[in-house]
Amino acid sequence: MISPFKCPGSFGSGTPAIKIKICPQCGGEVELFSIDMKVDCPSCGQPVFNNINSCAEYCQYAEQCLGTDIYSKLKK
């Protein structure tokens, strides 16, 4: 699997950006990097999802980067 920081399909710097989201269950702050699809809230454990499209939807290198198992799950 290729490191997400060296993604061959990336056109930007490849440096992940951090976002703060609010947990829908407890209202706590959850830090997500731009490459995270989901992070569990550190306060209550509720999964918090990043509002991004998976690269599996559009990138020709996605299977190479993510690996076949993860790629197949994301394509479903």
Describe this structure in words.
By secondary structure, this protein is an alpha+beta fold. The protein has one domain (about 15-75). It contains 2 helices and 4 strands, in the order ββββαα. The chain has helices at about 60-65, 70-75, and strands at about 20, 30-35, 40, 45-50. The chain has a two-stranded antiparallel ribbon. A two-stranded antiparallel sheet has the order 3-4. Strand 1 (about 20) and strand 2 (about 30-35) form a beta hairpin. It is elongated, with a radius of gyration of 14 Å. The relative contact order is 0.21.
Short key terms for the protein model shown above:
76 residues, alpha+beta, two-stranded antiparallel sheet, 2 helices, 4 strands, 21% strand
Helix content: 10-25%
Please tell me the overall pLDDT. Answer: 79
Spatial gap, N to C terminus: 20 Å
Characterize the largest beta sheet: strand count, sense, and whether it forms a barrel. 2 strands, antiparallel
Read across the widest sheet, the strand sequence of neighbours is 1-2
Shape: elongated
| Number of alpha- plus pi-helical segments | 2
Question: Number of domains in the coordinates?
Answer: 1
Q: Write the element-wise H/E pattern from the N-terminal end onward.
A: EEEEHH
- Uncertain runs: none
Beta-strand content bin: 15-25%
